């Protein structure tokens, strides 16, 4: 079908109900599950998909053993369908917020806190400046955040792009440089030491992320480059919060980010252990879709993160050490 004819048919015959059904099947990859989610019968849902395919003149889904898969035409149509519903959702949110006296909403993705501890402080500053704003924080790891960006579930992600393969569809704005360190509780026997050797640290109990985690592999390669052995974990934990808690309450060591001891919650209870290693940096960035113009709220939030990152550190307590562990760019 020629493009002008299809555009004419879309503007005259596209039904929002069919588009809603398409996005539900896209999300669930199952006609049965999509029908249940929409409170429709499966025949009614199938009829809606068939009507959309007939209007477009292409097949959107193939049936497979465990559900359905997008055809090549479905892959081309899916991002636009998501974009339509994303804009409708944002319009509805804005109308509701305006009616309630608010002025906007923002959905931000971030690594599990306190991995990037300036994020909560930036949210606080944004709300102080704009009391009517509603902010939703979504915590995921890097690859999941990029997936949510592409699904338009979030508008902005604060992450370390060096740990993922960023593609051409993404806008990456460098915010500040971050480095990794070895964290310990202030009550740990090594916390008062002014000098430490790596073999001493290997004898301690460690909590580390699983070996298939990006951060684990990043640190391992950094240590390999210096011919240092990776610690053996006593505990493996994917959650940053859980690792931080085990450092505080179980006397373990862990790799963390230096900013956790500068501006993170609980920073008064942890120290960076002094290890005689050079420090290299990796960038923390604001990542968004190039095809999606950042909202004014998103731009203001990024400005708050940048301002916090550039602010001088608070005075350190007497037991706080300032030397950090290498985090080489992979």
Please provide a written account of the structure.
- By secondary structure, this protein is α/β, with parallel strands linked by helices.
- The protein has 3 domains: 3-83, Arc Repressor Mutant, subunit A, CATH 1.10.10.10; 100-177 and 283-310, Periplasmic binding protein-like II (D-Maltodextrin-Binding Protein, domain 2, 3-Layer(aba) Sandwich); 180-282, D-Maltodextrin-Binding Protein, domain 2 (3-Layer(aba) Sandwich).
- It is built from 12 helices and 12 strands.
- It has helices at 3-13, 16-28, 31-38, 42-56, 72-99, 118-129, 142-150, 198-202, 214-225, 240-249, 260-263, 296-310, and strands at residues 61-64, 67-70, 104-110, 133-139, 156-159, 170-178, 180-185, 206-208, 233-236, 254-257, 270-272, 282-289.
- The strands form 4 sheets. Strands 4-3-5-12-6 form a 5-stranded mixed β-sheet, sandwiched between helices.
- Strand 1 (61-64) and strand 2 form a beta hairpin.
- Helix 2 crosses helix 3 (31-38), helix 3 (31-38) crosses helix 4 and helix 6 (118-129) crosses helix 12 (296-310).
- The radius of gyration is 24 Å and the shape is elongated.
- The two termini are 48 Å apart.
- 30% of the residues are buried.
Task: Write a compact overview of the structure shown.
This protein has about 325 residues and is α/β, with parallel strands linked by helices. Helices cover about 45% and strands about 20% of the residues.
Write the layout of secondary structure elements.
Elements: H1 3-13, H2 16-28, H3 31-38, H4 42-56, E1 61-64, E2 67-70, H5 72-99, E3 104-110, H6 118-129, E4 133-139, H7 142-150, E5 156-159, E6 170-178, E7 180-185, H8 198-202, E8 206-208, H9 214-225, E9 233-236, H10 240-249, E10 254-257, H11 260-263, E11 270-272, E12 282-289, H12 296-310
Parallel strand pairs: 3-4, 3-5, 8-9
Antiparallel strand pairs: 1-2, 5-12, 6-12, 7-10, 7-11
Helix pairs in contact: 2-3, 2-4, 2-5, 3-4, 6-12
């Amino acid at each position: 079908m020629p493009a002008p004819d299809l555009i004419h048919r879309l503007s005259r015959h596209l039904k929002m109900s069919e588009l809603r059904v398409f996005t539900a099947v896209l999300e669930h990859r199952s006609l049965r599950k999509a029908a249940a989610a929409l409170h429709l019968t499966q025949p009614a849902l199938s009829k809606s998909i068939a009507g959309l395919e007939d209007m477009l003149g292409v097949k959107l889904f193939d049936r497979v053993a465990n559900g359905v898969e997008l055809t090549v035409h479905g892959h081309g149509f899916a991002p636009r369908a998501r974009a339509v519903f994303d804009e409708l959702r944002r319009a509805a949110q804005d109308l509701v917020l305006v009616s309630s006296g608010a002025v906007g909403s923002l959905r931000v993705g971030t690594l599990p806190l306190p991995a990037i501890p300036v994020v909560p402080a930036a949210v606080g500053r944004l709300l102080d400046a704009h009391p009517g704003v509603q902010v939703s924080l979504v915590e995921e790891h890097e690859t999941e955040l990029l997936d949510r960006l592409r699904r338009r579930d979030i508008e902005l992600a604060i992450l370390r792009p060096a740990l993922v393969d960023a593609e051409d569809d993404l806008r990456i704005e460098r915010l500040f440089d971050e480095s990794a360190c070895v964290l310990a509780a202030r009550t740990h026997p090594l916390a008062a030491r002014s000098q430490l050797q790596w073999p001493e640290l290997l004898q301690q109990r460690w909590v580390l992320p699983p070996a298939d985690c990006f951060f684990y592999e990043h640190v391992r390669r950094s240590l390999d480059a210096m011919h240092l052995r990776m610690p053996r974990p006593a505990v493996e934990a994917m959650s940053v919060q859980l690792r931080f808690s085990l450092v505080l309450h179980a006397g373990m060591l862990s790799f963390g980010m230096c900013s956790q001891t500068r501006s993170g919650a609980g920073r008064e209870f942890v120290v960076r252990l002094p290890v005689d290693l050079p420090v290299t940096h990796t960038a923390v960035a604001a990542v968004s879709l190039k095809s999606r113009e950042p909202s004014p709220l998103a731009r203001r939030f990024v400005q708050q993160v940048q301002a916090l990152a550039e602010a001088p550190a608070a005075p350190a307590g007497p037991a706080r050490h300032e030397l950090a562990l290498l985090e080489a760019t992979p």
